[in-house]
Write a structure and sequence with these properties.
Number of helices: 3
CATH architecture: Beta Barrel
Number of strands: 20
Number of domains: 1
CATH topology: Porin
Oligomer: single chain
CATH class: Mainly Beta
Distance between the termini: 14 Å
Structural class: mainly beta
Order of helices and strands: HEEHEEEEEHEEEEEEEEEEEEE
């Protein structure tokens, strides 16, 4: 019992201590964007309290055919220079549901895991993990304001060793990790029966380890303003404006590695439809203006931009998820490159077979075109695997994943990962 109390205290303090990510997240209109879980998710109820907890343990084992993504920008081929290896990753996640009063509640999911390479082929490291497998966690507290208003204060933290966007960048490397922290305030209000406003402010910062990648460290402030009007049954549309100010670290950075600070403006129309087929998205225009910390790079980038997400299926048995986006990003880029035009598509499907099996598959494609004579590449990732319910609290998942990159500047690389994950709700 003492161990449980100690673990709970440490996890809760970690979650509550998350204040002020680079490239902060805009307002998510998806209906399933909620830290609250179903009642049966929380397996521990604290006596004489409204606090509910859910502890989940995981153990992942994976074989990686190309840990360092060898062959990328090396002048060699992947078949002759790759290095394979196996790692184990135990982890523990805690979900929190805490209605503090009738007007405020705290919801969070926080976890930690350790990736260990027994043979030393890769770098062993700690990860922050979410309960869905993403390398992130967050906390949110809701407060009612007036009859229809709601103010949400929260924080998100992530530690990224790799992502599809990071793998596609010209300075992609298995040798550094990105830690991002975001604090945000979000205000929602029904102005009348058909008009709704959602406004969000966030401050975020990110840092990179080891210190050789300090030039990527940055902070940003973002304001996201959205006004929606109910236009048809289950659907609404309205204007949005997003302004992001990003400024990079310049201390102890040589002039050749300094990143240019950026003011990014996005404006256009946002829309959503909630029903058997749920659709959310934005369509607009983006202007990114850069200062002259590094006077070699371009000073402005402009482009049409969009985000689209579609979810449909037949109840919980068959679910399809489609997403697509296009726009500018400055993440994971080395000077003198200011931005990359990225066009990304993904599709995922899950199918429940009987009461015990779930089959899942997904595919993602990312096209990047970096400014200032940077890299042009295409990165494709495919994954498939089953999940089996061993018992009411235990699941076993198997997954095959293949990633390949094609680049006009170098030889690219390919990579295969075979993994298993054992999950148990205590």
């Amino acid at each position: 019992m003492a161990l449980l109390k100690g673990t709970f205290t440490a996890f809760l303090l970690l979650g509550l201590g998350l204040l002020p990510s680079a490239r902060a997240a805009t307002i998510n209109l998806s209906p399933d964007n909620d830290l609250r879980r179903a009642d049966d998710y929380y397996n521990i109820k604290v006596p004489n309290s409204t606090l509910r907890l859910g502890f989940t343990g995981t153990l992942t084992g994976a074989w990686d055919s190309n840990i360092g993504r060898s062959g990328y920008n090396t002048g060699t081929t992947t078949t002759s220079s790759n290095q394979a290896g196996f790692y184990l990753q135990p982890g523990l996640t805690m979900a929190v549901d805490w209605p503090v009063s009738s007007w405020a509640s705290i919801n969070s999911s926080v976890g930690i895991a350790y990736r260990y390479f027994p043979g030393g082929e890769g770098k062993s490291d700690f990860l922050l993990t979410g309960d869905s497998g993403e390398l992130s966690t967050g906390i949110a507290s809701e407060m009612k304001l007036g009859q229809n208003g709601k103010l949400t204060a929260g924080a998100n933290i992530s530690r990224t060793i790799e992502s599809l966007q990071k793998l596609a960048a010209s300075n992609s490397s298995a040798g550094y990790a990105t830690t991002s922290v975001e604090g945000f305030l979000q205000y929602e209000n029904d102005l009348n029966d058909i008009l709704h406003t959602i406004d969000r402010y966030s401050h975020s910062f990110s840092w990179h380890t080891p210190g050789d990648y300090k030039y990527l460290d940055c902070q940003s402030d973002m304001i996201d303003l959205l006004l929606l009007r109910d236009t048809w049954k289950g659907g609404s549309i309205g204007p949005y404006l997003t302004i992001t100010d990003t400024y990079y670290s310049s201390e102890q950075i040589s002039s050749g590695l300094k990143r240019n600070d950026c003011m990014d403006y996005r404006f256009g129309a946002a829309f959503r439809h909630i029903g058997q087929v749920s659709v959310t998205g934005r369509l607009g225009y983006e202007v990114a203006q850069y200062n002259s910390n590094n006077n070699v790079a371009t000073d402005q980038g402009t482009t049409p931009t969009y985000e689209l997400s579609i979810v449909f299926g037949t109840g919980e048995k068959l679910i399809h998820r489609i997403s697509s986006s296009y726009g500018l990003t400055s993440n994971y880029l080395s000077p003198p490159i200011n931005y990359s035009r990225q066009w990304q598509h993904s599709y995922a499907v899950t199918y429940r077979v009987g009461k015990k099996w779930i089959l899942g598959s997904d595919i993602s494609w990312l096209d990047t075109d970096e400014s200032d004579n940077g890299q042009k590449s295409e990165t494709v990732r495919f994954g498939i695997g089953p999940t089996y319910d061993i018992g009411s609290h235990t699941q076993l998942s198997l997954r095959y994943e293949y990633t390949q990159q094609f680049s006009k500047q170098n030889d690219g690389y390919d990579r295969t990962v075979l993994s298993f994950t054992l999950q148990h709700k205590f």
